[in-house]
Amino acid sequence: MKNEQAIVSIRGLRKSFGDHAVLKGIDFDVQPSQVVVVIGPSGSGKSTFLRCCNGLETPEKGRVEICGRTLVDDGQMLGEAALNHLREDVGMVFQSFNLFPHLPVIDNVTVGPRKVRGVSRKQAQSEAMALLEKVGLAEKAHAMPASLSGGQKQRVAIARALAMQPKVMLFDEPTSALDPELVGEVLQVMKLLASEGMTMMVVTHEMDFAREVGDVVVVMDGGVVIEAGPPAIIFTNPAQTRTRDFLRAVLSRS
Questions:
Q1: How much is the pTM?
Q2: What is the pLDDT of residues 1-19, one digit of tens each?
Q3: How far apart, in whole angstroms, are the C-alpha atoms of residue 53 and residue 137?
């Protein structure tokens, strides 16, 4: 039964690529202001699960409701106009930064509000500068993306997503493409968003972040959720042997 308070509600989610079943029946709810961290081995379906939450992938079966609207129901996706409108409420940050290389930082952040939300250039720039200040990059407003480090690019990507004033933020392994010394600056911004009450779904291999910031940790393996719960339980007393084996392997490497 759907939780009426949920901002994201997922039921019976199934997705295959050819003969390979990637998601085998996912049921999950996300409450407003929750930080849900999705962990698990590579190939477990984590990124596909996240991409189904904003229409980048269309599941064959199941239902996804997000921000009060039905995104997909048994393979029937929202129309293009309605989908684009929904994506105004659902920000996404990818592994790669996907900045427009020919635009300075401030224009990367303002292009969405101006083109989609119809915000004036003056207002968009004012909002963008506030967001760049939030992510610690106000001094880079007029820099070109090629001059930025990977961590700086990812922080601009976060500011760009926030510029659309989303209700939910999705992060797909946002630090996996970064050099180790740059990971902390991105995670710090994400921690700030969490402290401000942003609803977040985060696929990550950063176990310290999951333990410290997550309200709920979801463990996936083989296309299913094998367990979910508070970090204190998942990291200290997981119910599933597969979870214990995964955490032992990951934590020993770190």
A1: 0.93
A2: 455 689 999 999 999 999 9
A3: 29
